[in-house]
């Protein structure tokens, strides 16, 4: 009993002291120390080495140190908002291209990059989704991805198929693959973000005819519940109704689509070029290719849905704003960005830089040179709209909503969000 | 596996031969159910020892080669040693504080039937029902303004606050069931309240104390969001944060992630196996007598 | 004497009160304040809009769907989990050679993290790869081989099933300990009266373990109403809105759709609901305990 009493006393007295003493002074700035840039991003673990290597080279050149931390995408999205809202902003941080750049810059968190000389090195098209509501650039786009059809060449050869270049050819290829006992397309609609990829790849139909569709949405001249998006949704559901997907698309995750491709049960998957790396890891022996989703009539060229995947900005009120600008400039140098793109397995946003990171991606890269691209549509929508869209795709697949009901619910959200 | 389950409290009634057959059949049936029940754990364990390609191709099979490499890689990539140390520091200090603070607070709440003590009890217990997401932003703002980001004390104090209501709930329930006789005689001898609590009451609370220790250790050891918010520096990461850093932007190495998750779980499972008896008693003591 | 007690009460509870006020009560009250604003979680200025969020909430279809899902999820997990746990505990309370082993096997899931449980189960339940459907077809129950997480009519119950799977061991252990504290003498006298095993269970065992019911049901109720991780990891609230509960909706609104104020309003409502349900449940069960 005595010992326990002592134990409790010790707890009550010692532990708080220890808790408060520990770690005191850890974050006290000391004078004469080199400038340290705080950097926070959602880069995956596979990128850590490359980022730290690039940061090392930056320090060697400028003497400015970079303290880099990262969090998984979902968590990053929350933590960065909480940090900004609390005044604990990193000097350099990742921004999701599109709407978020607008919201972050409107809230005054992002430094304006428009006057910076290094922005001349960036492809004009890539900055469309890193501009604020005033039209100035607020984030540096680091890489681009495209959505397309990743396919298994061996299966295509076995069934005797060529790369389809029109919607009819695509449907007949799907039928042939199905007859040969394969699932023509893998689809991981259990993951919300995957549900939008086929419509985005198809939206070529819309943006080729009406390049200003989103602007006209904002002007109130268009609605989602109109012929354009209905056509996209009907084509999406046609693939489902003709059973060109495997059973259970709503309980299949992105990882499981990789599995279906790796096991050669599925012949194609519509996704971003990043999926190639995932499939290769699960089955290194596959012969993969990638072509643009051919949602066009015969003889026409499909546009490719391509967009900036990762962007990076500087905190507007950073005490180290000059150093932060130097750092962003460093990233636009060809030798730096090439190393990054090679590791990231993504396409370039810097003029004159192209990297050959995967033969399958190279195939669609060839098309990129010949055709137009348009951004992932959601990147220009008010926040909240995409969420309703994503839920809506699932609801239509589940038979809980009809196509007009679903598109109407998106219109309603759009109206509510733009009214605020 | 060490079986330290408590012996039956009293001998069961003598079984008839027919009764014994039924009992054996029931035991076998339950064992089969338990094995089926356990199957997902088996899947997790075996998949942590496969290569990504093997997981894709033969998810349910025993691993072909027992890739211990996954564990080595996971250990390396998550700086598991450091993370383990951080988790241990945070868990031990938080739980110690919780025991001290909540047992103290529960003593008057369980002993005195005054309006004040009842009101305080209701206040504490209603905190149990708060959805924590609501407090996140103001909490971060406060911790930041205190300049406590990247210090252990921030997570520790928040952990204590968040887990106090349940601990107080357990302690108070238990204290109400402890007879007052010993304390009364001590009062007559003129001992002060704090001394009575420390010398007489607290030792009597041992079962519920172990319950508080175990439940809070489990919750704090596995907590992800708070350490992610407050311990951003890599060197300060706790195990769950270190492990989740394996999740890639698009592609996740599940083999390594599973290995890391097994590693993260291992200390708790080992503790459970070794202390099974106290563990079970602890969980139940406070609750049953509540 | 009375004053003495008041002083003692305050002195003993002071550390807890201080910590809770600073690190829980204050942030929560600030959260309550945000529910009266249109704050998006980003702007440096916060606009006060009174009860507008709450008014919007009343007519929001997503809120009513999420509320219904919360009720179904909570009712399912609370009833099924306690039922299974109680039956297991009653069986295990008998003479059992392998009790320790069985108990461990049922308890290990409690020690696992949501992401492992979620990932493993999504994988087991998948209509193509999943071993559950392969197993069901194997024993001729093909009609039961459903799209567990993809069918909006079943998905909520599948997620509830995972949650139950994870926590049954916990409830079971509490029931088991309560059972083992029932004095053997009572059973012996019932034997003398010639009572059947069923009758003994109904009139001796169950009434005597009433406190275990109270605590178990309270823990499952609160846990289920607050459950976020498991749903978020497995279905993210989908397909469509089929598994979206209030806890998931509040997260989506606050952090995905950048409507911090609205999310806070949902949180306040969720808190009120949990508080009311728990208090009512506690009152009813405690009264029963007393009467028994």
Secondary-structure blueprint:
The complex is a heterotrimer of chains A (420), B (290) and C (292).
Chain A: H1 2-21, E1 36-41, H2 48-62, E2 65-70, H3 73-85, E3 92-95, H4 99-106, E4 140-152, H5 153-159, H6 167-179, E5 183-186, H7 192-195, H8 197-202, H9 204-209, H10 213-218, H11 227-241, H12 254-262, E6 266-272, H13 274-282, E7 288-291, E8 304-314, H14 321-331, H15 334-344, H16 359-370, E9 373-374, H17 385-397, H18 403-419
Helix pairs in contact in A: 12-13, 17-18
Chain B: H1 17-47, H2 52-57, H3 69-77, H4 80-111, H5 115-126, H6 136-145, H7 152-177, H8 181-188, H9 193-204, H10 206-222, H11 225-230, H12 239-244, H13 254-274, H14 276-289
Chain C: H1 2-34, H2 52-59, H3 61-92, H4 99-107, H5 114-125, H6 131-138, H7 155-180, H8 184-192, H9 197-208, H10 210-226, H11 229-234, H12 246-256, H13 260-291
Helix pairs in contact in C: 1-13, 3-7, 3-10, 3-12, 4-7, 7-10, 10-13, 12-13
Kindly summarize this structure in a few lines:
The complex is a heterotrimer of chains A (420), B (290) and C (292). Chain A contains 18 helices and 9 strands.
3D structure, described in words:
The complex is a heterotrimer of chains A (420), B (290) and C (292). With 420 residues, chain A is an alpha/beta fold. Chain A is 46% helix and 14% strand. Chain A has helices spanning 2-21, 48-62, 73-85, 99-106, 153-159, 167-179, 192-195, 197-202, 204-209, 213-218, 227-241, 254-262, 274-282, 321-331, 334-344, 359-370, 385-397, 403-419, and strands spanning 36-41, 65-70, 92-95, 140-152, 183-186, 266-272, 288-291, 304-314, 373-374. In chain A, strands 1, 2, 3, 4, 5, 6, 7, 8 and 9 form a 9-stranded mixed β-sheet that branches. In chain A, β1 (36-41), α2 (48-62) and β2 (65-70) form a beta-alpha-beta unit. In chain A, α17 packs antiparallel against α18. The longest helix of chain A is centred in the N-terminal third of the chain and has 20 residues, at 2-21. Chain A starts with a helix and ends with a helix. By secondary structure, chain B is mainly α. Chain B folds into 2 domains: 19-71, no CATH class; 80-289, MetI-like fold (Orthogonal Bundle), CATH 1.10.3720.10. Chain B has helices at residues 17-47, 52-57, 69-77, 80-111, 115-126, 136-145, 152-177, 181-188, 193-204, 206-222, 225-230, 239-244, 254-274, 276-289. The longest helix of chain B has 32 residues, at 80-111. Residues 1-14 of chain B have low confidence and may be disordered. Chain C is an all-alpha fold. Chain C has a single domain (54-291), classed as Orthogonal Bundle (MetI-like fold), CATH 1.10.3720.10. Helices cover 74% and strands 0% of the residues of chain C. Chains in contact: A-B, A-C, B-C. Chains B and C meet through α1, α4, α5, α6 and α7 of B and α1, α3, α4, α5 and α7 of C.
